[in-house]
Amino acid sequence: MALPDAVLVGCDTGVHHDVGGAEYRHRREETESGLAALGVTSCQELTDSVIESARVDPDVKRRLHHVMAETRRAVEAADAMRRADLGALGRLMSASHRSLGDLHEVSTPMLDAVVSAAEDVPGCFGARMVGAGFGRYRRGARDPRPRRCLPACDGRRLRGVTFQLRPSPGVAVLAPDVVRG
Question: Using CA atoms in the order 98, 102, 105, 108, what is the torsion angle rounded to 10 degrees?
Answer without folding.
Answer: 60
